């Protein structure tokens, strides 16, 4: 099942499109397909920076007008040029965490790269992620690879 309770949208490494896809699946499972109802459910899931978007709707009788309107607003916040630039900086600085396996680290790099460069080709993605992976892993693992 999808963890939408905390809506990790405010975290820098979360892809808005995949989060919304998960939310849509949950709405289908819960039979909440009506646009207004989906909008109200979405508002309950938001946290952090995403929750700040809700303040726009609170000024208008505290009820979101529609799911599609909220999504449009979220996209304008989370898929802006400044947000992509921030994700690129995070990608460039990302190193493997102590508790993180190589697979998890690679997956996080791919997510960050896709969020920062949505129009990148598969070759660019592969090359950039491999470079970042090699520079972000421990020295011991790097020696074992080479």
What is the SS-derived class?
mainly alpha
Query: What is the percentage of strand-forming residues?
Result: under 5%
* Anisotropy-based shape: elongated
- Provide the residue-averaged pLDDT: 78
> What oligomerization state is this entry in?
single chain
Count all strands and give the number: 0
Description:
With 146 residues, the chain is mostly helical. 67% of the residues lie in helices and 0% in strands. The chain has eight helices and no strands. α6 crosses α7. The longest helix has 15 residues, at 102-116. The termini are far apart. Residues 1-7 have low confidence and may be disordered.
What is the fold's blueprint, element by element?
Blueprint: H1 16-29, H2 35-45, H3 48-58, H4 67-78, H5 81-93, H6 102-116, H7 122-136, H8 139-145
Quick summary of this structure?
The chain has 146 residues and is mostly helical. 67% of the residues lie in helices and 0% in strands. It is built from eight helices and no strands.
Characteristic terms for this protein:
elongated; single chain; 146 residues; 8 helices; disordered N terminus; mainly alpha
